[in-house]
Amino acid sequence: MKDITPGIIGRAEITSVTEEMLAKNVGSGSLEVFSTPSMAALMEKAACSCVAEYLEGDETTVGTELNIRHTSASPGSISIYAEAELTAVDGRELSFEVRAFDSCGAIGSGTHKRFVVSSGRFMNKTLAKIK
1 pLDDT exceeds 90? Predict the structure, then answer.
């Protein structure tokens, strides 16, 4: 991993909430609103984009902790974006503040941790579970 300094920001967005992202279709509720699991995934995607250019070789990051609050519902067809700010680097552990917004304002926030790993070694260890 290249030298990385807290303060960088990554962003991920979806231009329109689709049917597949609704709580009633994800299994996280019965309403036609943007689901919490979809918001969590968008926040993780923002964190990944935040550090992607600092990774080298077969390095990638894996999520290890996510603590979020979903504070406002968003209807289908609205645009959503998430931002992740790198707040700390402790060896291979990366900490982020994450936030999500729709076109009306903030819809969620929290903290997230990711760990830098070698893709090959990580997958070999993971696949060894089924051998």
Answer: no
